[in-house]
Each structure stands twice: as C-alpha cells, then as structure tokens.
Design a protein that fits this description.
This protein has 2 helices and no strands. Helices cover 93% and strands 0% of the residues. The relative contact order is 0.04. The radius of gyration is 47 Å and the shape is rod-shaped.
Length: 125
C-alpha cells in the first residue's frame, strides 16, 4: 500500500473516532436536555396545580367562615327568641298577679304603666 492511502485511511479512522465521540457527547446532551425540559414542564404543572389548590383552600376557608357566621347569627337569633319568650311568659305571669285591684281605673292605669315600662325595656335591647 502506498503511503498516501495509509495516510488517508488513518485520517478517516481518526475522523470516524472523533465523530463517534461527538455523537456520544451529543446523545448525552440530548438526554440531559430532554430531562431538563421534562422537569421544567413538571414544575409548571406543579405551579399551576399549587395555585389551584391554594384558591380552593382559600374558598373553603371563606365558606367555612361564612357558615360559622351564619350559625352564630342563627344561634344568637334563637337565644334572642328564647329570651323574648321568657320575657313574654314573665309578663303574662306578672299581669296575672296584678289582676286584683280595688278599682277598675287603678287596674287600667297599672297595666298601662307596666306595658310602657316593658316597651322601654324592649327598645333598650
């Protein structure tokens, strides 16, 4: 074989070796980039999902607060109604107790005074 052919053969083998190393390096780079892209996509999906969860948690908290306020209001109303019923019961018994006047005019005046006092109490509350 001639020197030129051996030289050409050696150059081609070197080039082939260099191309094989370059190919290997590029394949590794591509795999790395694919993993990085996959990570980036997962991070974006995670961010979006986290925001959705945070919004739902906030909405849940707001609704629970609203429900608690409604329950407290209802309990307050029930207590108020119970208190009014007790006042009415008390008024009825007090009126029944004071129904023994000597004169009719005194009875009417005492009942009117009592009603006026009770109205003033209700206005205060």
């Amino acid at each position: 074989m001639s020197v030129e052919l051996q030289k050409k053969k050696a150059e081609l083998e070197d080039e082939l070796q260099l191309l094989a190393e370059t190919e290997k390096t590029l394949r590794e780079s591509v795999k790395t980039l694919e993993v990085e892209v996959a990570i980036q996509k997962l991070e974006e999906k995670t961010r979006v999902k986290r925001e959705a969860v945070e919004k739902l948690e906030s909405k849940k908290k707001d609704l629970e607060k609203e429900l608690k306020e409604a329950e407290n209001f209802k309990a307050g109303q029930e207590q108020k109604l119970e208190g009014e019923e007790k006042v009415e019961e008390k008024q009825e018994t007090e009126v029944m107790v004071t129904v023994t006047p000597v004169e009719n005019q005194e009875l009417v005046q005492s009942q009117e005074q009592y009603k006026e006092e009770e109205k003033k109490k209700h206005r205060f509350f």
